[in-house]
Amino acid sequence: MSRMYKQNWKRKDSIEKLFAVFRSSTDFIQYDVNTSHIKYWISYFETLVDVNILNENILKPIHSKYWQSLEELKNILPVKDIFLTIDTDLMKEKLLEGFVMISLSEYGSPCLLVNAKLNKAREVTLPEVEFTVIGPKEAFVESIESNINLIRKRLPIEELRIRTLKIGRLTQTRLAIIYIEGIADEENVFTVWQRISNIQIDQVNDSSYITEMISDNHNSPFPQLLDTERPDRVVSILAEGKIAVIVDGSPHVLIGPTTLVEFFASFEDYFLNWILSSFFRIIRLFAVSFSILATPIYVAVLNYHYELIPTDLLNNFVTSRREVPVPPFLEALFLEGTIELLREAGARLPTKVGQTIGIVGGIVIGTASVEAGLTSNILLIIVALAALASFTTPVYKMGNTIRLLRFPFLMFAEMYGLLGIVLCFCFLATHLLRLTSLGRPFLEPIYPPRISDLKDAFLRMPFSMMNERPKQLRTEQPKRMDEEKSRENKDIDE
Amino acid sequence: MAQIAERHKVSAPLVFYLVHSTQFGIGVLGFQKNVVKYAGHDSWISVILIGLIVHLYIWMIYQILKRSSGSLMTLQHDLFGKWVGNGLNIVWIIYFFLGSCAILIGYIEILKVWMFEDLNIWIYTAIFMGLLYYIFNGGFRVVTGFAFFGVVLPLWIFLTFLIFPTRFADLQHLLPIMDHSPQEIFMGTMQMVITVIGFETLFLYYPFVKNIDKSQKWAHIGNLFTTCSYIIIMIVSIVYYSAEEEILRNKWATLAMWKIVELPFVERFEYIGIASWSLVILPNICVMLWSAKRGITEIFGITEKKAIISVLVVMFFIVNVIVDKEDIQLLNKIINTYALGIVFCYIPVLYLITFVRDLWKRRT
Fold first, then answer.
1. Chain A interface with B: residues with Cβ < 8 Å
2. CATH 1.20.1740.10 assigned to B6-363
3. What is the pTM of this model?
4. Which of A336, B9, B44, B346 fits a 20 to 30 Å CA distance from B354?
């Protein structure tokens, strides 16, 4: 008896402490009410609680119905998430999530916790970063519940697994690991789980925090996890056997393990005919290489190998560079710097002002610097085209990487001309060969060469040919569909 | 010997790229002169001959290694005991090391003659050593990756050999076939030795291959590919150059053929060719030097990092010391005889020894 009393007393003490701490914030509400039949205490954070639920579903039944104990009240209240507890830590946690606590005395226990969370989420809107003309027009929002809903809606199967965790000592951000059991490799799931639980951080404000913390090589400019705001893309990638990570408060979902070629595939490729999308992919690949190599080649050729250009073409180069007093390297650096400046300024300003700045900067600075004899016409064309080409990458983060890659190439080109460009390429290739995404090679299917995975890399082959899941993922079900059946459908005369 | 972890191993088909890329390198740019000196317009027969011989040697290497518990280093150690065995191991390591140095020196010579007269060798080699350090730190997987890139990416250059010089080809130059005595053709074959070596690095990367039994096929295909490439280039040079003397006068006959390449937007194609050739010689140097480094770690039991750094530092000094033309020729001669002795004479002996030992073991 005395032990129980002691425990009770201790509990009372910690509830008292809890309330003392909470009362120092002005949005914590606590008061006692005398109804006709009973006296009770109610406490909650008014900023976390939905007033409608509080009034309609909690206070109204409390006052209109007859009840004697909290157990009875629990059965009366028409709220889905409701329970009795004596655990002070749980009370603390739930109060901070937006629960309403009801007790029969000021520090008494047990207490009844009733869910009255205020859910303020943005409506599901159009994708802005990965907009496609055809195809679904839904994009993820900041709320983890709506995001999971968007995925579950498209995958109504029992094998879809969702594991949740909490990350961040201060932000207590909820995070969900999603995969399809029986398809995704358990080892990959384990790797993601392990790396996420090892994270030591006080705040997580976006999924990018998680990307940086769990990627294999922190000192790489390449993103090693794909992020997307399209639920359809996540679903298609889950079906391939990959793993998605949703972070509460972030409209971007992470996907891994990924490969380099995946960053150059727009999801629209799957909505178009395979011939068209293969063509666009090749154009994109060409644009990316052009964007990285155009200015370095210009510098290399004009610095070291002007014999490389036929005489007629060389004339044009010489004429356009006649007035320019600086060597090609400085000229290129100046123009590339200007473009980066415009981009950065455009990105920081509000949309409407940003556009104006872009046009003014592009046209005025461009023509003026040619007229002033600071740069040549040809280089201006090359740099503008290269900048344009760098925007063809469908994934924004990869576009940033490509902007950066140009500069080391430029430096090597200045040092050793074409030889330098090849040397720099070798460094880049080594880096890419060494990179892994969740422990799987990043450069696959190029290296290690896997011909069956090339079907969805540089080209987008028809769906009927993609009857195997990527080998890189070591999925538990390598076949996507029954080959026999898909062949049957293709019979001509039937 | 400690077992190699599965994640450091490469799959069997990649042996194709490893074998081909180590054989195909700096020699391609100017191997014709030495062969044509002896075999004249029948040189292509010498090339076929060397191809067949290398097939035989690859088969022997596989037979030798199947009877060992790891690489060549452990095998020699087991066969000849600690002192003799390790002595032989060091001979091999020096061979691999000198081989990789010779490739880099040869490439720098070409760079100086054809592209940059005033190339600052020590800065260039310093950057190159940095690159090698970065590659070696990634392990054998990255080395193999470069073998792959070194084969696939410069493949388009082959078109320039086929399309442009053949416009000026005269097939009459090949006739009459078998105009030279077998002895002359054989002398030509001997000259090919330095251009086809490299396959013997198999001795060291053998434990790094998954499903080793399946890889022998790929090693042979790799050599077949090399031989075919050499035959094509040899025949094209014979039919393109109007006289044998012209080939003899050209130290780099293949390079000189690029001069004929003309596109609407590119003249002097050899600049592009030589720059891209970096990609061809890089796996050559990588695999050779990697073998030397691997041998050092196996014998002396030092850490990988120390072995990498010591190998690169010594290479840096050697490359910067040997810059004279005479020195380069001397080095090439040394390597040619070295290869003749250690690859073409020693491997059959080793094969016999392991064969006899195997028989003896089975009897007892």
1. 304-305, 307-310, 313, 416-419, 421-423, 425-427, 429-431, 433-434, 443, 447-449
2. yes
3. 0.90
4. B9
